[in-house]
Amino acid sequence: MLKIENLHVEVDGKEIIRGLDLEVPKGEVHAIMGPNGAGKSTLSYTLAGRDGYTVTDGKVTFQGRDLLDREPEERAADGLFLGFQYPVEIPGVATLTFLKTAVNAVRRQRGEEEYDAMQFMKLVRGKAKDLNISDEMLKRPVNVGFSGGEKKRNEILQMAVLDPAFCLLDETDSGLDIDALKVVADGVNALRGPERGMLIITHYQRLLDHIIPDRVHILAEGRIVESGDKNLALELEKKGYASFGTDRAA
Amino acid sequence: MDSTAEILLERFSGDADTDRTAARDRFRDAGLPTPKQEAWKFTNLRPLTQFLDARTEPANDSTPAIPDTLVDGAHRVVIIDGRIDGDLSDAGIDGLSLDQGGTLQADMGGRRAVRDLSIAMADDGLRITLDANAAPSQALELVFIGTGSRSGGHHFTLEIALGSNSALTVVEHHLGSNAYAATLATDVRLADGARLRHVKLQDESIEAFHLSDCAVEIGRDASHERFVLSVGSRLARDEVHVALNGQGSSVRLLGAYAGRGQQHLDHTTHIDHAVPNTSSHEVYKGVLDDRSRGVFQGGIRVMKDAQKTAGHQLNKALLLSRQAEIDSKPALEIYADDVVCSHGATAGEIDEDALFYLRARGIDAQAAKSLLVQAFLDEVFDDIADEGLRERLKDRVHGALQVEGAAHG
Hints:
The complex is a heterodimer. Chain A is of the alpha/beta class. Chain A has a single domain, classed as 3-Layer(aba) Sandwich (Rossmann fold). Chain A has ten helices and twelve strands. In chain A, the strands form three sheets. Chain A has a six-stranded mixed β-sheet with strand order 6-9-10-3-11-12, with helices on both faces. In chain A, strands 2-1-4-5 form a four-stranded antiparallel β-sheet. A two-stranded antiparallel sheet of chain A has the order 7-8. Chain A is globular, with a radius of gyration of 18 Å. Chain B has one domain (3-351). In chain B, the strands form two sheets. In chain B, strands 2-1-5-7-9-11-13-15-17-19 form a ten-stranded mixed β-sheet, covered by helices on one side. Chain B has a nine-stranded mixed β-sheet with strand order 3-4-6-8-10-12-14-16-18, covered by helices on one side. In chain B, a hairpin with a 2-residue loop joins β1 (75-80) and β2. Chain B is globular, with a radius of gyration of 21 Å. In chain B, 50% of the residues are buried.
């Protein structure tokens, strides 16, 4: 479903991703673990199409189509969803307005009929309830004054409402206490399915206690240095990142 | 006397009105202001001269379309090219008197070019008087339409006097087509405990000049809320001078502006805190695209006796193009020692993080930009109590900001 081949990415003239290969078939959940500076966020921003992340070599195909020449909004419409590590605050835009604009923008690009207010509210209310998101929170401006946990739950709500084919979650566990982590993990698990792929990027193993991955990859210095099943995450937790350094990748 | 003033005053009939004569004399002596004067440093009126010259041929001849009222059920006075059109006006509000004509006191201390020009050259005027304790539920709407079919510009004087403990909403709607120059001098006097809500939509023709000078005197425990939205004109200056003369008086000045093309939009305010226990709150927000230019000059003066003054001023501009420009000049003069005053001015570009976040959710770049720009401005509109009016003004500014290709349902 998502196939990355020999990807090289520069930020501000500095190479961060250095020949990364990865394939996530549909129906599977993969995790990428890596220390600070390994290139985790660069990978997620590159896949989502952010300006300033220059692909100098390699290729990414998503559902059989070249991903890298698509605009960020087109990637979203194609079904790629990025859950942000740091969700952005947008003063003056109510969360509901934002959600409705996004859902209908995606539906329009997919050639589907836009939701009217009634259909949309029904959709959002149900999903919000599962995530403990109150009506009051939906009326507030996007992420403004939200706690860390509220921001991440809001990300999962957006994901649930947009119903993407592929979920890319960038350090979704950061800034969460254990209760919030559980709510978020339940939200993610509810979206697991045979037609959907997921790539979970994280620094710590603890998220993977709640979202059990099919495959685990270790990212160091811009490439995958080790891949394995869920036990690799446990092994990593014991031994630390140092034992999976670039020397073993050479 | 410079040649500009000579041209302009050729129309002056030289009647016996001493205020008009005084205004004319002052204007004749000083001429049009130039950027050499501090108050006009950022706004150059030179291109205005030809539109004030009554000897030039009018650019066009057109019949104006009368717009719907901005406030549902408002009574209105329609002013076409500086003259009240009685047939189109309907202003029967209990407790409210409207008198055509009249003039304003010329000397307000200091040089006030637009005021002098309007008074000296006034084509017509209106005096609005509200009885003490009256609080009509209907708003009064003044519709100023420019057609470009009269040379020499059009000039109007307006007086709004509210009796003690009365309350009124006045809406000004300025619009038009073709090229012309419109000037307006306004006096607002609020007696003790009076409350005036004043909303102005400056939506003049994009070829027009709009110059307005408004003087406000606020009595004890009286309050004034003023909102201005500027979207029209090639060059506009909205100047407000507020005197908080009574203890417990307050003023809120709010402004929003959206400039495109080569528009020049100037908002100049001055607030005098003359006595103890007065407050002022001022927020202006603007969005500037293309080569447009915004000017904000905000003066606050706290007199020696004006203890316990609260004064807050904020000017924020969002620049959508590298050629757009904002000149912001706050000026605080504080002579009392027990006051709380603040001011802030910012100029910035669209938040790239927010833009990417919206795009990553499927919203295209132009629509995302529009959403962020609207969100930036919308806050200023929250003070407008009448929902219909608020939404109409928001729609107007959103329309003005609609970037090509951003039209989405």
